[in-house]
Amino acid sequence: LASPDRPPDIAGPVGEISPFAIAAAFRNAGARVGGRGLSNLAIGLRAGLAALFGLAAFVWMVLRTLNWPSRLPPGITVAIAVHAEIVNRTGHVLKVIGDVDPATTAVVIIGRPRIGFDAARALLRDHGWAGPVVRCFNLASALRGLPEGLRLAAAGPGALLANDFLPSFRAQMASMYRVIFGAATARWWMTQAARPEVVVYGHNGLADTVLLDLVQQREGARTVHWMHGVSAGRIYVGVSSLCVFQCGHDARWHDEL
Length: 257
Hints:
about 260 residues, six-stranded parallel beta sheet
């Protein structure tokens, strides 16, 4: 976006950058753009519809995982927050999870699991884990966190427009879902009798884990984001107390960013 006579470079996943964002990028570069494409009313209605879809997705996820245990056992000093899947963002944790002391450690399943509790437990058992496994929220925390989640979701569209950015409808719906979910997980942590001193995240950076991470720090825990791959720069803004990189180059690089 160096000058008006140079078209801006815009990169991103297919379908994730809206025409609104593209027009704003050209406008900020000094190009003349005919109209915004969407009126404020249309943008507001679109955000409201995205919030409804996000809320519906959250309710469905709550109903699917109601039978998951959600109470941290007493005596737990370390929690490992990980998704119930075998992919890049969990592989580094699953490789070593069998070496962790199950008497003082619990695995907390974050995100939206695509499998049931028995399958998730079997997945962890296959990697050597025989300790407690709990979900990062329950029905009570979902209900108590809903007002805060909806408040945060309602504030989102205004912040996006103020920065000349409007994500695609799918991305906006996913954001609404994660904000509502994050408020529920934050409320869940505040109801736990056991309070681990350290929480290790195999993956972090989205609203559902960021809101949980922040309340854990506020309540006295030290949170650690164990990066699952090589850094690509500022695409991730960390909120954890500590970030552990996969290599020294990334650690030094982020100190300079």
